[in-house]
Amino acid sequence: MTARTLLRRPAALLAAAAVAAAALGAALLPATLLPAAPATAAAAATAATYSASGVEIIDIDGGTLQAPKPSVSWTTSAETSSRLDATGDLLKLNTTRTSDLAVTAGPTGATATIGSGEFTLRDRVPVTFRGLSVVCSPTQASTVSFTALTVNGTDITATATATPGFTYQLPSSQYGATKIIVGERTTNKDGSITTTALRVEAEAGASEIWRIRAGRITCPPAAPAPARVTATGLRVAAPDGSALVAGEPSVSGEGQTKTAATVDAASSYPAHSKNVSVTTAADGSASVGIGEFTQVPDQTSGVGEYRWNALRVYGLRLSVAADGSSTVKFDNASSAVFANGVWGNTATDLYTGLGSDGAERVRVHFNERTTAADGSVTINALRYEDLTHANPGVTLGTVVLAAPKAIAPAKPADGPADPDNSGTLPAWNSYGIAATGPSPVRPVAVSRATAQPQKSVKALATPAEESASAPTAGDGKAGQIAVGSVTTTSSATGASATVGQLRLYPGTTVEVSLKNLLVKATGTGVVVSSDGGTVAGRPLAAGTIAPDTRIEVPGTTIRVVLNEQSRNGSEVTVHGFHLTDASGLATDVVAAVLTTAAVPADTAPPLTPASTGPGGILVPGALAPDGKSPAGMSDTGSSALASTGSTATPGLLVGAGLLVAAGTGIAVFRRRRRSGPPTQD
After folding, report:
1. Whole-angstrom Cα distance, residue 353 to residue 343?
2. Is there a single domain that holds both residue 177 and residue 279?
3. Could you tell me how far CA 345 lies from the centroid of its own chain?
């Protein structure tokens, strides 16, 4: 009897017999008595989006000798991680030791690292390694690396990591063939991909340990890059949200054109369009043309096309340049858009029609621009809303631009690129928050890193790092700007800025509430993320934030940009959050900031922030609940005339709306309150 036979445990034989008996019994039972198989769809639905584990060991029978540890999985919310100092030997005559195990899974991907390890199965040569790492991200396939990987003292690191799925056969043993596999990738039924940095595979049933997996992650497949530009003719949505026209015609990608002589709504609904064309060019620009669109709900009275709920549009042209700028024109501007019973002035960005009771009932947006959480930008030439929810909504001419790519940290403008030569690496500086305007806040928790000579940085095991923190900060009694748990670090090789809680302008339409806003720079780039929150009433999902994610605040001149990345020569600045209102409050607020530019020393005398008056009433400098003007200031400003949009002054320009009554209806045609002709019911 061979040693391999002796090592087979009685439990294995008993288990095999039990399986056979169970199979026979099942065959003899009626089908109705057999347990139902678990629903694979339900099982897949509970699978984690990202997971990572350290070491797993399978025994001779295929059972679990050591469950994966440490192990984490992630689907939503904040990143999760786990660490383990070491794992030890489990069986005599077998070495299964590892140290410094760490695993992480979160919105930015999954990572598993092991500082060092040795796997020596009975009568086999040792497999040792240092610096095992396996990582994946939403935009990058998994990568595997080792500082060193040896078999019986022979270094195979370069060869093993050069080819995914590299296989190395160990010398023969009385316990059969044994091999190691490096960077093994398998695709699961749900499309996710599992990558194992190192697998030791013995012959099944030959010795106490059959299989060892070290450093394992599971990630969804890298998402395909979205089309750089898409263009769509029109959409019509019923009040219940169902599509009457679901985006026709439409093209995705550069250099395409599609036309439609007519487009009719589904279910015989009286909405029709003629001569629709959509075009995208090789440079990413796009255009949409619509010869005519009519939506006339009243088809019985003979004057339905003149009712307030009729929408008629003629000769619309949307042009979007390669840089993202857009223009909307009409063949005949004086008779281009009929809505709320009147011909509207198209030289505006918003038309609002009022009913006979003075309540808003129609809105028409022109050249509307919105930014999604992923950084993509949607431009609508015209979007019609029926605020009574009795008639369909209409969107004419839509172009979607993919999110711009992130900006890599700038290299020095001059000096040799060889790190062995003299020169200076750029230093990242960081701070938590700063603001100018009515509620000033000087830079908080500033970390300044001194640029290091390249030779010194290469020689240092740990580059010099500066850190700073602030438990709370803000604009004092004004109560408009407040942050908590601010920490920053800066060094010659990287930096980070974290704002645990960011709260701006509470109780207004512009209110901002974010948790754990993080900006982190390394040698490979900059990542911005948060645990989510709200910006001007819009939810922001937890996870990574695409570069230059813009959020518009309707009815105001306020602009919000998340992960704002800019470059000035060799200087790079990244704002995790940036709010500006240049023409209204002259306010500028930045949070979680990294920059290679110098941060001025705080030598100025203390600034006096806006404060509250008696009884907590806000005085000029604080936003009023409408989010548009400082509390305590007249909404009409110092001028009795409405702003036309052709000129602007540094002060607050909010025009008084001119309401004109006629018959049974009232309308307002405005650019943030512009007067217009009366409605017809």
Report:
1. 11
2. no
3. 37
Range of the domain at 482: 429-613
Contacts of 5 (CB under 8 A, 6+ apart): none
478 is written with which tokens? 């004004």
Are 48 and 25 in contact by the 8 Å Cβ rule? The answer is no
Q: Name the helix (H) or strand (E) containing 4.
A: helix 3-6
Q: For residues 499 and 485, is the Cβ–Cβ distance under 8 A?
A: yes
pLDDT in tens, 326-385: 999 999 988 899 999 999 878 888 888 888 888 889 999 999 988 876 678 899 999 999
- Residue 523's SS3 state is coil
CA distance 618 to 630: 8
d(CA 525, CA 109): 15
| Range in 151-155, 163-167, 184-188, 592-596 the model is least confident about | 163-167
Whole-structure pTM value: 0.40
Q: For 508-534, what is each residue's pLDDT tens digit?
A: 888 899 999 999 987 667 889 999 999
Residue 537 and residue 504 share a domain:
yes
Q: Cβ(430)–Cβ(447) under 8 Å?
A: yes
- Report residue 87 as tokens: 């794992």
Query: What is the separation of C-alpha 95 from the centre of its chain, rounded to a whole number of angstroms?
Result: 44
Residue 604 maps to a domain? yes
Q: Which residues contact 516 (CB under 8 A, 6 or more apart)?
A: 78, 498, 499, 500, 529, 530, 531
The answer to whether 181 touches 199, Cβ cutoff 8 Å, is yes
Whether residue 157 is found in the same domain as residue 182? yes
Q: How many domains does the chain have?
A: 3
- With a CB cutoff of 8 Å and minimum separation 6, the contacts of 607 are 440, 442
What's the burial of 303, exposed, middle or buried (CB within 10 Å: 0-12/13-18/19+)?
exposed
Q: Which of 518-522, 574-578, 637-641 has the highest mean pLDDT?
A: 574-578
Single out the residue in 197, 219, 241 at which a domain terminates: 219
Give the C-alpha separation, 206 to 191, whole Å.
Answer: 33
CA distance 224 to 10: 51
Encode pLDDT of 404-451 as tens digits: 654 444 333 333 333 333 334 457 889 999 998 888 899 999 998 754
> What does the alpha-carbon distance between residue 674 and residue 655 come to, in Å, rounded to a whole number?
8
